[in-house]
Specification:
The chain has helices at 21-33, 47-54, 78-82, 89-94, 98-105, 111-120, 126-130, 156-163, 178-181, 183-194, and strands spanning 39-44, 61-67, 143-148, 168-172. The chain is of the alpha/beta class.
């Protein structure tokens, strides 16, 4: 089984211009096309919107995993999907407030790892948050929502509501980024789905 993590345009180590929802989805589709066999897509946080927009329903993707993620329906923006459960501190944390970012996104990570993760954060393209989704692959593909019980970025009520859009819900006793704080839990889940 091959594993691949991609950085969306303008994020992480990507040198591409910052991408809107469509550009992010195009990056995910390119990754799908470069992989042999059916894929399992895992989208974290706002990346949930990208996988829902990108995933083809022709057999190349067999499962979607939404990791503490936003899951917009067709026509729904990030804000509409979050509803009244949006956490205003998230915007502040992304706007150059490292201490806030540590607490919101990486509360259960060790200090060195949290510092690295904060250094990788950047702003979002306004249209990544403000564009309505044109597709909602979760309506046609099997899906799992990973609800992070100590998340301070996407509130528990928001995650409970969004997770109802998936067939399965897995709860993890972590903050917003279990791929950093408890990677073994995520590896176990993805391995089970791949098997």
């Amino acid at each position: 089984m091959a594993n691949r993590a991609i950085d969306l345009p303008g994020h992480g180590e990507s040198r591409e211009p910052l991408g809107d929802l469509r550009a992010n989805a195009a990056s995910v589709r390119a990754a799908i096309e470069s992989c042999p066999g059916p894929s399992i897509l895992c989208g974290h946080s706002l990346g949930g919107a990208s996988i829902g927009e990108a995933a083809p329903t022709d057999g190349r993707v067999r499962h979607l995993v939404y990791l503490a993620a936003v899951i917009p329906d067709v026509g729904e923006t990030f804000a509409a999907a979050m509803g009244e459960d949006a956490t205003p501190e998230v915007t502040d944390a992304l706007n150059e407030e490292p201490d806030g970012a540590r607490e919101i996104f990486y509360a259960d990570c060790d200090a060195k790892l949290a510092d690295w993760a904060v250094s990788m954060l950047g702003r979002e393209h306004p249209d990544a948050l403000g564009s309505g989704a044109s597709r909602a692959a979760w309506r046609e593909l099997s899906s799992t929502y990973v609800l992070c019980e100590q998340d301070r970025a996407i509130t528990a009520p928001a995650q409970e509501r969004l997770s109802a859009r998936c067939q399965d819900v897995v709860r993890m006793p972590t903050s917003h980024s279990p791929m950093l704080s408890r990677p073994e839990l995520l590896v176990e889940l993805l391995s089970k789905l791949a098997a």
